[in-house]
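COMPLEX REQUEST
Ligand: KG4
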Amino acid sequence: MLILGVESSCDETAVSVVRDGREVLADEILSQVDIHAAYGGVVPEIASRCHVEAVAALASAAIEKAGITKNDIDAVAVTYAPGLIGALLVGVNFAKAAAFSLGKPLVPVHHLRGHIAANYIASPELEPPFLCLVISGGHSLIVAVRGYTDMRIIGSTRDDAAGECFDKSARVLGLGYPGGAQIDALAKNGDEKKYRLPRAKIEGSEFDMSFSGLKTAVINLAHNAQQKGEQLDRASLAAAISAAVSDTLVPRTMLAARRLGYRKIAVAGGVAANSRIRADFAKAAKREGAELYFPPLKLCGDNASMIAAQGYYEYLAGRRAGMELNAYATLPIGEN
Ligand code: KG4
Ligand code: ZN
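STATUS: Structure written out below.
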């Protein structure tokens, strides 16, 4: 079964063709990162306009690269939540038009379920149930993936997301937007012990997380250094930030897996590209004899293949949308 996936929830316009949820035939993506970088963050109105300009051409390119015709497509899957509402609406309306004109079903996909599904493409043997840590620019969740469309939140951040913490810290360090990947690169030459940063615990809920204290500590460190006219060791601070984020995420996820009896652990979302988090998970999983799944770097960030992959399983579960489908800025991952 061939699914055309459409993604436009933030600053990447993407269209893919995926067979049976696992095999990517074409993966077209146009990032707007360079445009938004000038503003230090995503400007929603600009994002929507860029999606409008790009989506149709990307769809044509995806169909051509997949070596199919548009009539070979069996269903159209689209991200309808969560994300920037104007940006989401562009993809949703394009997908509606495509499904309507082709006479094929329209399948709505939750963006974070899509991130989880990037692991199905990367690891054909992976099937639920498993535990997944979803870490993106706007979300940090530990999710029990009980079935392909049956998710339960085990823990989540009480304030900022891990990606947000990386991005805000990067801004303070004078790095560009989005800064996660740059902090990651810089951290490789740093001494993480040079700066002491907090690892927050949430009283009474061991699987929830908090990153706002860490973000504030980084901002204060930078301001104090500036006031004293001291030079920050940016590489060491980047290493300390990466260590603090990883120390918040990895032990919690491993503990949740142990408590709930999951032997398979997956990680998903843009922040899953982080080399420190990947290395710490690899060590922890080896120590505990757990199976660990990560998407390749290319599939960690936003893309449409993950949407088509999840769309396949949503389709099998009977999920369909009509022409009244709306987009939602927020939506819990567990809702069907
Ligand atoms: O999943 P994603 O592409 O978009 C959302 O759905 O939000 O995640 C983007 C986030 C950004 O905060 C970005 O800085 C972060 O992922 N990111 C990283 C790395 N690569 C991307 N954070 C830490 N280390 C990285 N290597
Ligand atoms: Zn995302």
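REMARKS: The radius of gyration is 20 Å. The longest strand covers residues 23-31.
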